[in-house]
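Section 5: illustrative case.
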C-alpha cells in the first residue's frame, strides 16, 4: 500500500469518513466494548481532527498499522483483516461527526446498514460512529458524495 506523507495531506482541520474493507469473519476485543464480531465487507468510520495537527496528522496515524491503541478505531486499523481503502476529508472548524453519522444513517435502508453501538461515539450522544454498509465501495461513495456537498471536502483513494 502506498502511504501518503503528512506533507501530501492538507493541514486543515475537520472531520473525516474512513472507508475500510474487512476481508475475514473476525471477533475483536474492543476494550470497553468487549468482543465484537465483524463480517467481511465495507465499514465506514467517522472521526474528527480539530487539534493543531488536523486531518493530516490524524489520518496519517490511522494509516499506520503499528501504533499504540488509543481509540476504538485503532483496534480495526491495526488488525491485518482490515485495510483503509479511501477516505473523505471534510474541512470544517466545527465538529460535524454527528451530522455525518445522520447522513450515513439516512442514506441507506435498514437492510443495508449495521451500526456498532457506542463504537467511536463516547464523546457524543450518537449511537455509533462505525457502520457496516452492505454495498460496494463505489456505490457507497456515489451515494454519499452529493449528500456532503455543502461542505468543502476531498475524496482520497488509497493505492495498493
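Designed sequence:
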Amino acid at each position: 500500500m502506498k502511504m501518503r506523507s503528512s506533507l501530501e495531506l492538507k493541514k486543515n482541520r475537520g472531520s473525516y469518513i474512513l472507508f475500510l474493507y474487512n476481508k475475514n469473519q473476525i471477533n475483536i476485543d474492543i476494550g470497553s466494548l468487549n468482543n465484537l464480531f465483524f463480517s467481511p465487507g465495507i465499514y465506514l468510520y467517522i472521526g474528527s481532527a480539530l487539534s493543531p495537527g488536523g486531518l493530516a496528522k490524524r489520518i496519517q496515524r490511522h494509516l499506520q498499522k503499528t501504533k499504540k491503541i488509543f481509540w476504538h478505531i485503532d483496534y480495526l486499523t491495526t488488525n491485518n483483516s482490515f485495510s483503509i481503502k479511501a477516505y473523505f476529508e471534510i474541512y470544517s472548524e466545527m465538529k460535524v461527526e454527528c451530522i455525518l453519522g445522520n447522513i450515513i444513517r439516512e442514506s441507506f435502508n435498514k437492510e443495508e446498514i449495521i451500526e456498532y453501538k457506542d463504537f467511536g461515539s463516547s464523546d457524543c450522544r450518537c449511537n455509533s460512529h462505525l457502520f457496516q454498509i452492505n454495498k460496494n465501495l463505489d456505490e457507497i461513495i456515489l451515494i454519499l458524495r452529493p449528500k456532503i456537498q455543502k461542505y468543502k471536502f476531498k475524496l482520497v483513494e488509497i493505492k495498493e
